[in-house]
Predict the structure.
Amino acid sequence: MTPNARFLEFIKDITPSATTNSRSVSAHTSVRDAITSDDDFKNEVKRTFLGGSYKRKTAIRPVKKGDDTERPDIDIYVVVNGSTSPASSDYKTPDDLIEELYSALNRNRKTLGITKITRNRCSIAISTNKADMDVSPILERNDEGYYRIGNRNTGEWYLTDPEEHTNWSAKVNADANMRFNPMVKMVKWNRREFPTKNKHPKSIALEALIAKHIDRNESHYGQILHDTFNEIVDHYSTYRDLDLCPTLDDPAIENGDLLNGVTGEVFSAFYDKIEYFRDEASKALAAEDQDIATKHWRRILGDRFPSTKASKSDSSIGMQEAATMSPLTFPSAPSTPPNKPADFA
């Protein structure tokens, strides 16, 4: 079997570096400080917090865009004053919230070094030389305990709880002996290297799918990959036969479906890829020749998966695992409301 050390080496390689993390902290801290100190907006802000894969520590190393420095993606949530009730004196539409936040960020554009700023349906996307960030205005928790995020195009409000997604992810990682986060990173890398035409399921949906089917007791990452893929293939075979998309419970929203809006065609394309990767993992695990095994692992994880000659010795496993499985400190897209549009990001 391929030594676990080679998977640990790979996981370390696809994990954001210390330099990337430093840039991330500098970028989101500057944006959050600007928002809470802007004279025309600060009184509307209750607090800000981080979410997504950056906060859940499931992000992978960022893509280098042309000659630009690799920039991570960070999700920032801004809890603001407002009400969804038209009868309230504090009533605001989703578009109102987006416009107020856009104006505050735009006023601080030069100070923050913003090179691009765009209104999305539920957030403001900004780019700096340090990071790409989605900044989302949300309303305070309602009586049910959920935040609300608005769609400026439709006027709809969605329930969301990115903080609970972070708590849930940390618990799953602990229950899986700190192997859940690395597994998510490997599957996300796999999706980046060998994408389907449509990116769904992604972000929190992909993580929830892995959490549902991961073997929390297995210690060898190659075996975990195979077994997780195999569980997904077995569990959803009927849906694939019928070209339907299953439901997937949102761990933060009661009765929430993280795959709401994803079509059967999109899920089937994802399923077929997973089935192919399951078969490749079976061949890799069965191969006695490590060069042949590596060929199969690279069909799943890409050419960054270390070659036999470049791999570390088995004696380094413990030290590497301790370095790789650091406590939760480090998202991708905003949290998924139960009735979100399929391409909500």
